[in-house]
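for the recovery benchmark. tokens below, seq after
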């Protein structure tokens, strides 16, 4: 639990962890879940369903900001000193891959079943065979441009996050160890990168009408702009935290999570859609992270934040193939499909987050003689 620090004590040193970020990540993951479930295939799907969490895809940009902040907090002081780029990337891969592999294998089972049964829109054997090895390694299948992550589409954001992680680690490790770092120069460089990403985000939204892009190969410019801006903003927020943390209001976690869900809920159209997307990415998303970093936990909310953090990544990684499985093979009413898909997704996420993922990572780390990553390094995401 975080406590108020004396005026003479460094606030960051007094608060080595930011537990409310876990809660924020969990709320955003649920927004992504219902953003996808609103399009469940059912003959009686009501007209209002399409409006449910219609802005949920913007949770991806929030995850990217969270990722930059947490990666800098967890690794920034060690990269290039006690931690090399290979060790860092291996740790990140071990942290991310087992869970996304579970979602990919669920999606593979659905795709094969659809193909064997000759169901409409079933992927071809070429797409299935070429996608499996690439997607299991968290790589896009460039041979299937319409479905680079065929079995688990949300995995696209994890791929771009790994690219950002690698670029950050490479930049940190290239700095001479014997030469003192120049924070101001580094900050100016990061600001320039963020501005480049901001231009890309603004142009993408104005040309395409929204930022709901990343799943297909042709979306790469938009995806690159989104990760460039938001991940860099997360780095900048962490580097400047001493300047804003004590000045940020201490908002209780329930209100913060409610604000997050409300911001990811609205439905917009036309020019308003593009303006809202840019506004969320540029202003709302960083502000949510700042508020979460400052927020103080009380009583049972500390446990709630931890639970949301544990479930968030598995929920993001498995909900899409589970949704496809249920709507394909258990046709029923929309509300029944909604309840079943949400319930099964959450249940599987709990089992994976609490049992399967820790066991898999411990086994992999034992085999590779790598220390198991802590739960502080849970990916920010989940993404749409």
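predicted aa per position
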């Amino acid at each position: 639990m975080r406590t108020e620090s004396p005026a003479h004590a460094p606030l960051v040193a007094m608060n080595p962890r930011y537990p409310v970020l876990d809660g924020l990540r969990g709320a955003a993951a649920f927004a992504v879940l219902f953003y996808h479930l609103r399009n469940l295939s059912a003959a009686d799907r009501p007209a209002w369903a399409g409006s449910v969490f219609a802005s949920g895809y913007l949770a991806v940009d929030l995850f990217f900001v969270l990722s930059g902040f947490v990666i800098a907090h967890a690794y920034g002081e060690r990269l290039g000193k006690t931690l090399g780029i290979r060790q860092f990337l291996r740790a990140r891969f071990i942290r991310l891959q087992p869970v996304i592999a579970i979602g990919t294998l669920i999606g593979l089972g659905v795709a094969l079943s659809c193909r064997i049964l000759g169901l409409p829109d079933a992927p071809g054997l070429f797409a299935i065979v070429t996608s499996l090895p690439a997607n299991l390694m968290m790589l896009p299948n460039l041979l299937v441009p319409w479905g680079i992550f065929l079995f688990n589409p949300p995995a696209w954001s994890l791929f771009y996050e790994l690219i950002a992680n690698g670029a950050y680690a490479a930049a940190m490790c290239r700095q001479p160890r014997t030469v003192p770092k120049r924070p101001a120069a580094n900050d100016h460089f990061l600001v320039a990168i963020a501005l480049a990403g901001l231009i890309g985000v603004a142009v993408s939204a104005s040309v395409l009408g929204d930022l709901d892009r990343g799943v297909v190969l042709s979306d790469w410019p938009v995806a690159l702009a989104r990760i460039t801006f938001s991940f860099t903003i997360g780095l900048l927020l962490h580097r400047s935290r001493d300047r804003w943390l004590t000045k940020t209001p201490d908002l209780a976690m329930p209100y913060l999570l409610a604000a997050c869900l409300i911001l990811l809920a609205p439905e917009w159209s036309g020019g308003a859609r593009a303006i809202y997307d840019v506004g969320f990415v540029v202003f709302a998303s960083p502000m949510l992270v700042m508020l979460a970093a400052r927020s103080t936990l009380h009583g049972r909310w500390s446990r709630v934040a931890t639970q949301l953090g544990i479930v968030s990544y598995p929920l993001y990684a498995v909900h899409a193939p589970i949704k496809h499985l249920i709507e394909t093979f258990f046709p029923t009413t929309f509300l029944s499909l909604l309840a079943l898909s949400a319930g099964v997704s959450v249940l599987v996420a709990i089992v994976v987050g609490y049992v399967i993922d820790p066991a898999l990572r411990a086994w992999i780390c034992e085999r590779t003689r790598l220390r198991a990553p802590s739960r502080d390094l849970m990916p920010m995401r989940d993404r749409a």
